Amino acid sequence: RGRVWQGPYEFAGFDFKLTSRTDYLVQGPRDCLVFLSGEQPEVTGSNYRDRAFAGRTSDGGARFKFLSWMTGEPLGVRSVMPATVRTAPNRLVSVMRRKVNVNRRDVNWLEASVSDDHGTSWRFLSRVAETDRGGTNGKPPALLALQDGRLVVAYGYSSKPFGIRVKLSADGGWTWAEELSLW
Questions:
Q1: Is the Cα torsion angle 70, 144, 170, 137 positive or negative in sign?
Q2: Sign (positive/negative) of CA torsion 128, 131, 132, 137?
Q3: Which of 56, 83, 94, 134 is the most buried (most CB within 10 A)?
Q4: What is the pLDDT of residues 92-132, one digit of tens each?
């Protein structure tokens, strides 16, 4: 319960340097899906080389298996810090940060991807929100599936007017309602 800690432990099983925050869905006592990002040379449109991917352990974390990249084209665009929920037995929806440099200006947004095969493959679902006007790096999402089936994503907006914002989706992430400002 957090009083005693052991480790650190290595994420064994991936052939590239891991980056950023970990997202996960526990599936059982020894089974867990993980959503991470790793440095990839094909990500060239940013000063960061992150690309989000799904992995799995079925032995309590002793070994991890790479399942799939969570973003496809364009490959040069950074994808990082996924926030993932299960919306059906085999369906996962993940919202993550995206970043690319266009004409020496950073463009930052949140994008949703979906997997209908338990994380084995992913496809683009929707563009969720802008996270700034290019002056900073944007902020990561927090995603929840509500009891009524809607999805809610919360995120920080990094340009004036700064703040915490939310959007709701009533159709599994295909479309998102108007942005609400919480602060």
A1: negative
A2: negative
A3: 94
A4: 999 999 887 777 777 788 999 999 999 999 999 999 998 88
